[in-house]
């Protein structure tokens, strides 16, 4: 092995695979350019000893191995990223199915508060809070939208537009008909709002 190649190999041992692959490619380009400069005739081919042929074959195999290793590292990185995304959104279907139940709980609590039966309200609040906390622990998060917020078509769903009761509510949210929810960073249900015109 030439001194230059030996120095390059020693440098590569502490480098990441990507840098090693780039170095190997650079070496191959240099060798091809050198070969173009020195045309080989049949005599030069015959002069190659068996040892040199074996070294060339070994170098080719090492190159193949490094390329394969780099591809495998990229594959592992990509699949682990995809797996994390899948885990984050795996509960989406179940959570979406539970949202109407959560809405019904909210409506029931509002109606019970009107009736004034404290014991009944307290019991339903306990169940409601436990249900809500369980969903929150699985990544569900309510979107905070209130009257007077600016309307954003990217995150709000306008179901109707009414004349604004106050001038400051023109083009803004007048009422929230249905709450929106996120699962992680993804919106699984957009808040349904009424806007003022």
Automatic annotation (TrEMBL):
<dbReference type="InterPro" id="IPR000740">
    <property type="entry name" value="GrpE"/>
</dbReference>
<dbReference type="GO" id="GO:0000774">
    <property type="term" value="F:adenyl-nucleotide exchange factor activity"/>
</dbReference>
<dbReference type="GO" id="GO:0006457">
    <property type="term" value="P:protein folding"/>
</dbReference>
<dbReference type="GO" id="GO:0051087">
    <property type="term" value="F:protein-folding chaperone binding"/>
</dbReference>
<dbReference type="GO" id="GO:0051082">
    <property type="term" value="F:unfolded protein binding"/>
</dbReference>
<dbReference type="Pfam" id="PF01025">
    <property type="entry name" value="GrpE"/>
</dbReference>
<comment type="subunit">
    <text>Homodimer.</text>
</comment>
<dbReference type="InterPro" id="IPR013805">
    <property type="entry name" value="GrpE_CC"/>
</dbReference>
<comment type="function">
    <text>Participates actively in the response to hyperosmotic and heat shock by preventing the aggregation of stress-denatured proteins, in association with DnaK and GrpE. It is the nucleotide exchange factor for DnaK and may function as a thermosensor. Unfolded proteins bind initially to DnaJ; upon interaction with the DnaJ-bound protein, DnaK hydrolyzes its bound ATP, resulting in the formation of a stable complex. GrpE releases ADP from DnaK; ATP binding to DnaK triggers the release of the substrate protein, thus completing the reaction cycle.</text>
</comment>
<protein>
    <recommendedName>
        <fullName>Protein GrpE</fullName>
    </recommendedName>
</protein>
<keyword id="KW-0143">Chaperone</keyword>
<feature type="compositionally biased region" description="Basic and acidic residues">
    <location>
        <begin position="31"/>
        <end position="43"/>
    </location>
</feature>
<keyword id="KW-0346">Stress response</keyword>
<keyword id="KW-0963">Cytoplasm</keyword>
<feature type="region of interest" description="Disordered">
    <location>
        <begin position="1"/>
        <end position="55"/>
    </location>
</feature>
<dbReference type="GO" id="GO:0042803">
    <property type="term" value="F:protein homodimerization activity"/>
</dbReference>
<dbReference type="InterPro" id="IPR009012">
    <property type="entry name" value="GrpE_head"/>
</dbReference>
<comment type="similarity">
    <text>Belongs to the GrpE family.</text>
</comment>
<dbReference type="GO" id="GO:0005737">
    <property type="term" value="C:cytoplasm"/>
</dbReference>
